[in-house]
Amino acid sequence: MIFVKSTDNDFDGKFEELLARGKMDIAHVSGIVGDIIEDIKTDKNLALRSHISKFDNWTPKNDADLKITTASMQKAYENIDKKLKDALHLAYDRIKAYHEKQKPKSWFDTEANGTILGQQVTPVESAGLYIPGGKAAYPSSLLMNVIPAQVAGVENIVICTPTPDNEPNELLLAACHLCGVREVYKVGGASAIAAMAYGTETIPKVDVITGPGNIFVATAKKMVFGEVNIDMIAGPSEIGILADESANANHLAIDLLSQAEHDEMASSILITPSQKLADAVKDEIEIWLTKLPRQEIARKSIEERGAIIVTKDMDEAVDLMNKIAPEHLEVATMSPFELLPYIKHAGAIFLGHNTPEAIGDYVAGPNHTLPTGGTAKFYSPLGVENFMKKSSIISFSKNAINEIGEECALIANTEGLTAHEQSVRVRLK
Amino acid sequence: MIFVKSTDNDFDGKFEELLARGKMDIAHVSGIVGDIIEDIKTDKNLALRSHISKFDNWTPKNDADLKITTASMQKAYENIDKKLKDALHLAYDRIKAYHEKQKPKSWFDTEANGTILGQQVTPVESAGLYIPGGKAAYPSSLLMNVIPAQVAGVENIVICTPTPDNEPNELLLAACHLCGVREVYKVGGASAIAAMAYGTETIPKVDVITGPGNIFVATAKKMVFGEVNIDMIAGPSEIGILADESANANHLAIDLLSQAEHDEMASSILITPSQKLADAVKDEIEIWLTKLPRQEIARKSIEERGAIIVTKDMDEAVDLMNKIAPEHLEVATMSPFELLPYIKHAGAIFLGHNTPEAIGDYVAGPNHTLPTGGTAKFYSPLGVENFMKKSSIISFSKNAINEIGEECALIANTEGLTAHEQSVRVRLK
To answer: How far is Cα A12 from Cα A60, in angstroms, rounded to an integer?
Structure first.
């Protein structure tokens, strides 16, 4: 763990190290992934079936085997405990309510001369959601990808998830039933991304692909970008915490560890002007670590990619955090909203002592698919807009084109585009 | 030109051909482009200067030579004709007004138990705009890229444009002054994209890169996607026209040619249920062609990539156009707004007989940077949102977390993420 004061001599170097976190070496796997994509483009289902034999340790007998039945989803749903069912429904409802507020509206404006200008927002026709499978199959990921697509009004929603040993994760199946999705395929990795981008005999070609995944999935998403749209290229998870002395060190320690337990590559970073809090959190992390089932992963993550930075004041803490642009940012201070205007970049901002990041992972409502590795400087959380697109609307009356057509023709002429110019001039008089 | 009825035997094959338009063979140049990007990452300005010698036929003497002076922009502006100056100001003002209406707002909602949920929208810190240079340097492209970035509130706007023979396009310089941009570099092609994505001693690293370009520029943009955000991967320009007998054949012919004159790879497609109109437009194209200075380009484009399709009725025409998902769509019918609800995919929709596509290229207000090659199925026009990003806002009170914390902890536990569970539980009571 980096445990450092901003005034230390070696601070700049250590901070640079921190900023370099979370970069994936996509170039390293792009050869393999390129081959997989070509394979699927050429041999479609045949290639899918052979990739499944190779990576997932079972062999589909026929094309129909690729699809999970709706009956098995319903059965899985019926089998889950009532309390969990209620919790998942609560999550579904809250996530849906938040995303409905987020949905953009078409708009237009008129001008007195008869002009209408506007923007029409429409859903994409089909979306492909990638959901990791096996042990790391999270029903929450399914909800967070399906609901924005449903709220957007996407007609065809397709899901791909790997099923090692042909054993689908029952919770994931239950969540599929709960969300009302019907097209779920037992296909994973780069093959799944290629199948949804180009289509096979069984899996339809989609317009947008979203969802988390490992470096092979991320690389495949980047490679098919342009053929389809994608949400973002995501790396390991992160949390940044800005805190003052009003924060509870025990709470912050477990918040940091809730990222660390995800992945050895995850980063957990506390920045505070309080040396006292910094010391206390460090101690509390040690205590918590001994109690966690995922202790091994969390310890490695904290040791190699964790950081506690003590700054001169809160202004400096905010500045440093803006440079980090963390995926999750907790603001654990006395008056967190006072800092909000100064926070420039973060995927999601959790304000106040009662808002642990985990509440946003499951039930708060906003999406938990967020930009990582500093990309919050330019990417947004996954949302309804990832499943919609816009068309500009332009309508001119005879009066309107007479009013500004001459200027339009002049610019077109200056650019040497005579047909452009003439297409306006023929309508003037 | 494809001139066909939807009832013809060979229609399906011809339509497939049309749908395959505008695909760029990015794989073909990705080796060269990858090398250029590596070069710039490693040698920065030194590599830039050597690429300029190689591709633009002049040799910068030093790093300062890479930058265009603001004095030369001001001089270029002062030298342009009063009428053109006014026309450009009109365009600037109208484009700005439209994009201001498009700017998304931050929002939040409160719940009675003390919860606050919302979405904060903030500009990226820096944007890099690529503007093609030399003969194809269009001041309108500059306006269409700069204005949305300015409206978004981007602090640092950087422009790269190639200057063959070290002779910047004077109109482009004038437009730079008019827009108030100050950082313009004489760098083009894949080198420019790499310089803005990774930064050099002179050119700052940016967060978002937008702007049109050839296949090398498009490929470089795809390759740096993830390191920065990009707008879209754009190919040759296109126009689709839906028309009925109320349309003026002469007008539609010059509208089709206004795309064809851009580029031999451009496509111009008329779909109409009227055989009479189809025949007349075909004849008018021939007449117009003889009058155009860019006749050679326009003729090649129309012959190789133009199409006139006669359908059974307007419903079928709309269906086919939705499959094409054109960059520009003119609806030249008696009651164009009646068709609007059925139009699913198009970059910009031009409604009515007085709205030639060219009016949208320059002065109408909406952006002329639009998705091509069928990507209007999932991409949107360039706009203010390309230069902004969102952060989710989540704030829970003690009451709020007590209300739904148990459900949250249960889901976390089910997913095997104990630290997540505990980070919520420690706050409950």
So the answer is: 54
